[in-house]
Design brief:
Helix content: 40-55%
Largest sheet: 10 strands, mixed
Number of strands: 17
CATH superfamily of the largest domain: Ribokinase
CATH architecture of the largest domain: 3-Layer(aba) Sandwich
Number of helices: 17
Distance between the termini: 20 Å
Bound molecules: ligand NAX, adenosine-5'-diphosphate, potassium ion
Radius of gyration: 26 Å
Structural class: alpha/beta
Strand content: 5-15%
C-alpha cells in the first residue's frame, strides 16, 4: 500500500472529484457516513458527542458527522471555530445542512471560547484540521487542543489528530497536537503515524476507504509503502516435486562467542525453520557442543579460537552469509570480521556486533559489498549515522546511507522499515511489543540468511523476512502472551507463520 503525502492526498481528492463524476460535497458525505458508522459501532447513545470543527474540509467532515449522529438520536454538541471568517465551501454547506436538520446545540466561536465541561463518558470528535495543516497550531487553536488533551473525554480524530503534520514534525510544537485515542484516517495512512514519537497522538488508527481514485493512487509517485500480506504470498517460491537440498542453498552463519552462544543457536534454528537446504555455523570452539546438541540439523565449523571469532573462513561453498549475532567486539574478532566482510562475494547480512564493528571502523564502511543487508535497531543505526532528534530525520539519514553505500538497511522496531539503495522504504505491519526481548533480532538474521541462500533477491529477502518474523512474533504472542514470549518462542512459531503464508485462504 502506498503512503502518499498530504499534498498528494489533496490531489487525490481533486482527481477523484474531476474524473470519477463525484461532487466534492458528496465525497465528504461519503466520508462522513463511514466516520459516523465507525463511531456508532464503538459508542452507543449513552455517550454525549462533542464535535470541534475547524474552518476547512476537516471541519466540514466533522459537521456532517454531527448531523448524522444527531439524526440517529445521539446527543451532540458542536463548536465551530471560525476565527478568520474564512470557511471552505464544503464547511459552509455543512453548517447550512446541520442547521436545516433542526440541530439545536451549535456554537460558532470567533473570539472567546466558553469551554464545555467534558467528562470521561464524553466522546470528542476532533475535526479542527486535517491534511490541510500547513504550520504548527498556535493561539486560540493551541488553547483548544490543550483543553481537549487535558480533558478526561475519549478523543476521536478525523483523518489526522489536529496539529500533527502528515510527514515531518521536526518543527512542530508537541503540546499543540491532539492526543487522539482513535484516528479514523481517510483512505491512506500518514507517514507520521508510523513514527514511535508520535504514538501519544496516534496510538490507534484505522483506515476508511472512501473510494478515492485507484487510478490516481496507482500513478502517484512515492518512496513509502506498507507491505501487504498478498504481496508476500506472491513472493514465496513453491517447492518442486523433484527438489533436493541442493536447490535451497548452503548458508554460512558466523555468530556466537563465549557467553553468547545462544545468539548463534537462535539464528541457526530460525534459519533451518525458513527453508534453507544446508547451514554451516562458524563459531568459536566453546560453542561446538551447544550447537551440535540444540541444532543438530546444522553443521558446525569451529573457529581456531576457543572463545571468539578470530579467523575468516573460506566462502567458496556457500550461496549466502550472515555475520554478527553474539559475535562480541573483541579486537581479534573485529579484525577477522572486517576482513571477512570486505572480501565477501556472496549475498551478505550484517547484524548486531558486525554492525558495531563497522561503526567503530568507519573507514571500512565503503568496503561493504554492494547490496549487503544491514539490520540495525535504532541505536545501532545511530552509531552509524550519528544521533538523530526524531524518526523523520533518522529515516532520511538511513536513506542517505543506503544510497551512499548501495546497501539495504532494515531499521528494526515497531513498523520495521526496509530501506533500499534506491531510497524506497517498506514499512512492515506485522510484529508486536512482545518481540522487544533479547534474541529477537538474531531470529531475523537467521531468516534472512535462509532466504538469501535460497536465491531470493535482497529486496525480497528483506521484505519477506521481516514480514514472516513479525508474523511468527504475533503467533508467539498469541500462544505465550506479550510479557512471557521469548525469542525462542518466535522460532517455534515460524512453522505456523510459514504455513499461514503458503496455504490458500
Ligand atoms: N471533498 C474533499 O475534498 C474531501 C476532504 N476531506 C477532508 O478534508 C480535509 C482536508 O481539508 P482542507 O484541505 O480544507 O484542510 P483542513 O481542513 O485541514 O484545513 C485547512 C485550512 O486551515 C488553514 N490552516 C492550515 N494550518 C493552519 C494553522 N496552523 N492555523 C490556522 N489555520 C490553518 C488553511 O489555510 C486552510 O484554510 C481532510 O483532512 C479530510 O478530513 C474528506 O472529507 C474527503 C473528501
Ligand atoms: N514494539 C515492537 N513492535 C514490533 N516489533 C518489535 C518491537 N520491538 C522489537 N521488535 C522486533 O524485535 C526485533 C528486536 O531485534 P534487536 O533489537 O536486534 O534484538 P536483539 O539484539 O536482542 O536480538 C526486531 O526485529 C524488531 O523489529
Ligand atoms: K482532525
Amino acid at each position: 500500500m502506498k503512503i502518499l503525502n498530504c499534498k498528494q492526498q489533496k490531489e487525490a481528492d481533486a482527481y477523484t472529484i474531476e474524473h470519477e463524476g463525484i461532487l466534492s460535497i458528496n465525497l465528504m458525505e461519503k466520508a462522513a457516513g463511514m466516520l459516523t458508522e465507525a463511531i456508532t459501532r464503538r459508542w452507543d447513545k449513552s455517550h454525549r458527542i462533542v464535535v470541534f470543527a475547524g474552518p476547512g474540509n476537516n471541519g466540514g467532515d466533522a459537521l456532517a458527522v454531527a448531523r448524522m449522529l444527531f439524526l440517529k438520536n445521539y446527543q451532540v454538541e458542536v463548536f465551530l471555530f471560525n476565527v478568520t471568517g474564512q470557511l471552505s465551501e464544503e464547511c459552509l454547506t455543512n453548517i447550512r445542512r446541520l442547521k436545516e436538520s433542526g440541530f439545536p446545540n451549535y456554537t460558532e466561536v470567533s473570539s472567546q471560547f466558553q469551554a464545555p465541561k467534558l467528562t470521561e463518558h464524553d466522546i470528542v470528535v476532533d475535526g479542527l484540521f486535517g491534511s490541510g495543516l500547513n504550520r504548527p497550531l498556535n493561539g486560540g487553536f493551541a488553547a483548544v487542543v490543550k483543553f481537549i488533551n487535558a480533558s478526561p473525554a475519549t478523543v476521536v480524530s478525523i483523518d489526522v489528530p489536529s496539529g500533527l503534520m502528515g510527514e515531518d514534525n521536526s518543527y512542530n510544537v508537541r503540546q499543540n497536537i491532539i492526543q487522539a485515542d482513535l484516528t479514523l484516517s481517510i483512505q491512506m495512512p500518514k507517514l507520521s503515524f508510523l513514527f514511535p514519537e508520535n504514538e501519544e497522538f496516534t496510538s490507534h488508527w484505522e483506515l476508511l476507504d472512501i473510494g478515492i481514485s485507484r487510478e490516481y493512487i496507482a500513478q502517484a509517485e512515492t518512496r513509502y509503502f506498507i507491505t501487504e500480506e498478498q504481496e508476500m504470498r506472491q513472493l514465496i517460491r513453491p517447492r518442486r516435486t523433484f527438489a533436493h537440498k541442493g536447490n535451497f542453498g548452503h548458508g554460512l552463519l558466523i555468530a556466537g562467542s563465549y557467553g553468547m552462544g545462544g545468539a548463534a543457536v537462535l539464528a541457526a534454528r530460525a534459519c533451518m525453520r525458513s527453508g534453507i537446504g544446508l547451514l554451516t555455523v562458524h563459531s568459536p570452539i566453546c560453542n561446538h557442543q551447544l550447537l551440535q546438541t540444540i541444532v543438530p540439523e546444522a553443521m558446525v565449523q569451529d573457529d581456531v579460537h576457543e572463545r571468539f571469532f578470530a579467523e575468516p573462513t573460506d566462502l567458496d561453498n556457500y550461496q549466502a552469509m550472515a555475520i554478527g549475532p553474539g559475535l562480541s567486539q573483541e579486537e581479534i574478532t573485529a579484525q577477522a570480521a572486517l576482513d571477512q566482510v570486505s572480501n565477501c562475494f556472496i549475498p551478505l547480512v550484517l547484524d548486531a556486533d558486525a554492525l558495531n564493528i563497522f561503526s567503530a571502523y568507519r573507514s571500512y564502511l565503503n568496503r561493504l559489498p554492494k547490496h549487503s543487508i544491514l539490520t540495525p535497531h535504532v541505536k545501532e543505526l545511530e552509531r552509524l549515522v550519528g544521533r538523530c532528534s526524531n524518526s523523520f530525520e533518522r529515516l532520511s539519514k538511513a536513506k542517505e546511507l543506503a544510497g551512499e553505500l548501495q546497501v539495504y538497511i532494515i531499521l528494526k522496531g515497531a513498523w520495521t522499515t526496509v530501506i533500499t539503495p534506491e531510497g524506497n522504504c517498506y514499512f512492515n505491519p506485522t510484529g508486536n511489543p512482545g518481540m522487544a526481548t533479547g534474541g529477537s533480532g538474531d531470529v531475523l538474521t537467521g531468516i534472512l540468511l535462509s532466504l538469501l541462500a535460497q536465491g531470493y533477491t535482497q529486496e525480497e529477502a528483506c521484505r519477506l523476512g521481516v514480514y514472516i518474523h513479525g508474523l511468527a512474533g504475533d503467533i508467539a504472542c498469541m500462544r505465550m502472551g506479550e510479557i512471557s514470549m521469548t525469542a525462542g518462542d518466535i522460532v517455534n512459531a515460524l512453522p505456523e507463520a510459514w504455513k499461514k503464508l503458503t496455504t490458500s485462504k
